[in-house]
Every structure is written in C-alpha cells, then in structure tokens.
From TrEMBL:
Transmembrane segments: none annotated. Residues 235-572 form the FAD/NAD(P)-binding domain. This is FAD-dependent oxidoreductase. InterPro entries: FAD/NAD-bd_sf, FAD/NAD-binding_dom, Ferredoxin-NADP_redctase_2. Residues 334-355 are annotated as: Disordered. The keyword ATP-binding does not apply. Keywords: Flavoprotein, Oxidoreductase. It holds the Pfam family Pyr_redox_2. The keyword Oxidoreductase applies. SUPFAM superfamilies: FAD/NAD(P)-binding domain (SSF51905). It comes from Herbiconiux aconitum.
Length: 585
C-alpha cells in the first residue's frame, strides 16, 4: 500500500446520519485520511474493490447494521480485502437501550465482524465520538505495521534470531521494520555505516547506528530502557513484569515504597503476547496484551518504580540483618554503543556494575512459560516456522498459509483468532474432547464464527520439512489420536504452541516450599503441607506469603492461581498490604 492517505469508509442509507459522521471525520481527520461516504452496501463494496485495485490502504469501515440493512456482508468483505482494517457498526444515540440494537452489536462482535460500535455524533465537535474513532485508528496503525520508530531488523527470515529480535522490539512497544538482507532498502540503511550483513541479523537504531545481533540488554538500552540495579537497598524487589508484577509495582510505588522490578525478557510476560484480551475490566473493545502491559509499565514508572530490564534472577539469600539479597547478574555489556553511523556488537568492553539488589521484601511474579513439545523433529523449525506463543509479528507473516495452534486455553484461542485474520486456514489441536473445559465461552463462539477448525483428541508427534529443504520451513505435521494412537499427516506451514505451564522457580532456595511442578506454595497451605518446620513463626503466613517470611508469590507462579490477567492483577495489588505489614515488623 503506497498511497499517502488511507481511507475511512462510511456506509449508511440515512443521509442525516451519514452526513453527520462524514462532516466530523473530514474536519478532524481530513488531512491524514480520505473519508469516503456511501449510501448502500453495493456502492460501498465497489469503493472497497477500487481501493484494493489502486493499491490504497483502508483504515476504518463505519456502517449501519440491523433493521434490514445488509451491512453484515460489507464488514466481512472489508476484512477479506484488508485483514487489519478496523470495523465499527453505527448506531443512534440512545438506541443501546433497545434490545434489537444490543442483539445486533453482540452478534456482530461474536462473529468477529466488527470491533465495536460508534454513536452518530450528537453535537459539533463530539469528543466522545472522536475518542472512539481515534482509538480505532490507533489500533489499526499498530496492527498494520504503519508505526515507524526508526528501528529495522535486517536479517534472513529463515534465521530464528531475526524473528526473536523483532519480537523483542515489538513487545518493547517500539516495533521494527523487517528488511531482507538483499533488498535495496537494506543497502540504503547500511550505506555509509561500514557495516555488512554476514549471516547474523543487524539492528538499525533511529540514530543510524547498526548493532550486530545485540543481546537483550543491548537491545533494551538501544531504545532507552534501564538495565542497571539500584546500588542502595530498596523496600521491595519484584521479580517479573507481567500483569501481577506490574500491578504490585503500581501499588507499591504509589504507596511510597522504594521499588525495583526485574524483568528477564519482555514487559507483560506471557499475557503480553496476547493479540486481544476481550474480557479485561474497563476495556470494552478489548486490548492487546502488549498495550495493557505498556500502559501498566508507564503507570508504575510515573509513580517512581524503577525497572531493571534484561535482568534474570539467579539466586536469593538472607543477609545478617534479615534482608533479602537478590542475585541478578548483567545479561550483557550495555554501555554506550557505537557512534552514530558506526557498527556495534552490543558491547563496548565496559562491564556494568551491580549484580545484586538488597530488599526488605520480595514479590515473585515471574509467571510461567509454555511447555516445549517433546518432538525432536520440531526443533529445527523453532523460531522460524514453529513458535512457542503467538505475537502480531508472526501472525502477519502467515498470510495464505495453513496454520495449526496447539492448546485449548484462552491463550491458544486468542492466538488462533488473531491468526485467522491472515492465514488461509487455522486449526486448534487439543488433547481433550472439547474446548469448554479450559476456554472462555466468548472465545469459543468467536472461533466458530471465524471458521477456526478444532482437532480434538489429538497431539503432535512429528514434523516434515519441504523437499528439498532450502530452509528450516515446516510443510507438514504428524498428528496422533490420543485414544487409538492412529496417525495422520496434515499440511502445516506454521505451528504455534501454547500449552502447559512451567513456573520459573528452579533458582529459589530450598527454604521456599514448592509443589512437584515448581509452583510456590503460599498462605495457609504452607503450614498444612510443610508443618512447623516450614513455618516456625507464631503468626500464620499472609495469604500470598511463601514459607520464607517476607517472600511472596503472585500470579501464575503461585500454586492455586487462577490463570486470568484480572486475577493476576488482583493478587499483585493486594499483596502490597502484606508487604507493608512485613516491613513494619
């Protein structure tokens, strides 16, 4: 799509409503978007076809629906031509009280035909109308990859590290252009820098420097994130910046506790890779996991929480004063990179000081990671056409492909739904007989509406590459029936795996009681399972406290947690009252 201005299509048969919407859109967005009015679905489809033929971009479709208006096919047609387009049904002010309007909106959203609704402007200017439009356009801009930050990853898509770098940048909220090493764009970016592509990916940063396959710490430093640990003791150290850890950081910092958050990978944790979370309180249109995480990160930062990015906790001790000493050695040298126009390997030879932090209390919120399938044939494809989790970076690359998602939970459902925007076909592979055992009903309904296939009582047991294998590109997978063992081979060009949950707790000392899966035992279960040896104190442990007083576990890393973002946020919020009590003692 090369045209400067993307289009906004407004389709409504009633002239007053159509003209009110078009007038306000042109006044507010006319310099950046072309607003196209249409009085009928037939005319609107013709305009969409013309836009597609001219290589034009489409950002937003606003159309009437219900009451006999044939707008449903228009929404479906727009999405088939433009997978990233935002779609909104137009309703009159006050009509939400009518049962027919409510059913129409619910039906359209359940069938994934619209993102939300817009109310016909009631005044000029109508800022409520514009706020909703701006949110939709913002979503489209991010989904379509039009955000330009100045970062670019120059690398072979058949190299796993190329994908990993783009995912890290995207999860960090900056994104990056994908540039083929042999393209004219790559030649232009590298011209005059002295850098050459030699088989490992390069990252071009906004000031023109070229980083050669930077490690996570160097990449974080390149877009302005701190990686150092505070030298002075803090009240609270939080391990993990997923929903639970970020919530704990917001409440701790807002209540005056000196707080540092250690995050080994990306802000948002596992939830940060979710393409759309529809059932989180206060976000009626839904929000991407990355967007939720970035908002929470900025909120915690504004309250004064400090963040040490690319820092993985590796050990925990108690000092003579009873304070916690959390070990987290630097992930890499992250001093100043090269000068503008130069090339750097992400290190300058100056070792960053500080490999531990001292804290009065610790909140563990490190979450879990997806379990890897024990299928050796998959290993050559990991990071190229086999992925653990799903991100928007990889979803867009699956256009026209046959894709399978392994898993039956909400993460798998969200991944499959997002992939269905681009892939030729998407199917979920689950071991059980039905989805309802572990997935929210709204997702089940949306998957059915989107045409996502469900392969029940099956597991992946093998994989095959294209012949001749020019690159580690997946072509087929082998499925086995979990009851009979019968095997079948199906075409599969990309596999996304979102199963199992392994907590990050192997680094913890024996004093912290865990179950056989590694989940931290908290609250009264510490005494029930460990007895007085595990908890020798007179006062019982706090609800989220581990067997080591002052050490708390929240979110998915805790045994018995509810695997939902809202639950993790709740635990991260309420644990701070216990932290206050411990510090007071």
């Amino acid at each position: 799509m090369t045209h400067e201005r993307a289009a906004i299509l407004v389709c409504a048969p009633d002239a007053p409503a159509r003209e009110a919407v078009v007038r306000q859109l042109r006044r507010r967005y006319g310099s950046d978007y072309e607003v196209l009015p249409s009085a009928s679905e037939t005319d609107a489809r013709g305009r969409l076809d013309a836009l597609q033929s001219d290589g034009r971009d489409l950002a937003l479709v606003i159309a009437r629906a219900g009451g006999g208006d044939p707008a449903h096919p228009l929404f479906a047609w727009a999405r088939s031509l433009y997978p990233d387009v935002r779609r909104s049904v137009l309703i009159d002010w006050g009509s939400w009280a009518q049962s027919e309007t409510a059913r129409t909106i619910s039906d359209l959203m359940a069938r994934t035909l619209v993102d939300y609704y817009l109310v016909v402007p009631a005044r000029e200017p109508d800022e409520s109308f514009h706020r909703a439009v701006t949110d939709l356009l913002h979503d489209w801009e991010r989904a379509s990859g039009r955000v330009r930050t100045g970062f670019a990853v120059i690398g072979d898509p058949a190299v796993a590290r190329t994908h990993a770098l783009r995912i890290l940048l995207t999860r960090g909220g900056v994104g990056a252009d994908a540039v083929a090493p042999t393209s004219t764009q790559a030649q232009s970016l590298l011209a005059g820098t002295g850098a050459e592509y030699t088989g490992v990916p390069l990252v071009r940063v906004p000031d023109g420097r070229i980083l050669r396959d930077p490690d996570d710490a160097a990449l974080a430093a390149a877009y302005g994130l701190t990686t150092s640990l505070p030298r002075e003791p803090v009240d609270l150290a939080i391990v993990g910046a997923g929903p639970a850890g970020l919530a704990a950081a917001v409440y701790a910092a807002s209540e005056g506790l000196t707080t540092v958050v250690l995050e080994a990978e990306s802000i948002g944790g596992q939830a940060g890779s979710s393409s759309l979370i529809r059932n989180y309180l206060g976000f009626p249109r839904g929000a991407s996991g990355a967007d939720l995480a970035q908002r929470a990160y900025q909120q915690a930062w504004a309250f004064g929480a400090r963040f040490a990015h690319a820092r993985r906790a590796t050990g925990l001790q108690l000092d003579a004063d009873g304070a916690f000493v959390l070990e987290a050695p630097p992930a890499g040298d992250v001093g100043p990179q090269a000068q503008a126009g130069g090339e750097s390997d992400g290190a300058n030879g100056e070792q960053e000081p500080g490999s531990s932090v001292r804290a009065g209390a610790v909140v563990l919120a490190s979450g879990v990671s997806y379990r890897r399938l024990a299928v050796p044939e998959l290993e050559p494809f990991v990071g190229v056409s086999v992925f653990y989790g799903a991100t928007s970076v990889e979803a867009r690359a699956q256009e026209g492909k046959a894709v399978y998602v392994v898993g039956g939970g909400n993460s798998a459902g969200q991944a499959a739904l997002h992939l269905s925007r681009y892939a030729a076909s998407v199917a979920l592979v689950i071991r059980g007989a039905a989805l309802a055992e572990s997935m929210s009903q709204y997702l089940i309904d949306e998957l059915a509406a989107a045409g996502v296939g469900i392969v029940t009582r099956a597991r992946v047991v093998g994989a095959e590459a294209a012949h001749p294998p020019a690159a580690p590109l997946l072509e087929r997978i082998v499925l086995a029936d979990t009851l009979t063992g019968e095997q079948s081979v199906v075409a599969c060009e990309a596999l996304f795996i979102t199963i199992g949950a392994r907590p990050h707790t192997s680094w913890l000392p024996p004093a912290i009681l865990r179950d056989k899966w590694g989940s931290v035992i908290t609250g009264r279960d510490v005494v029930v399972e460990g007895g007085r040896l595990a908890w020798p104190h007179d006062e019982p442990p706090a609800p989220l406290e581990s067997s080591l007083a002052g050490f708390y576990a929240v979110g998915d890393v805790r045994r018995g947690s509810v695997k939902r973002v809202a639950s993790a946020v709740g635990e991260g919020s309420v644990v701070i009252s216990s932290v206050h009590q411990h510090l007071g003692r």
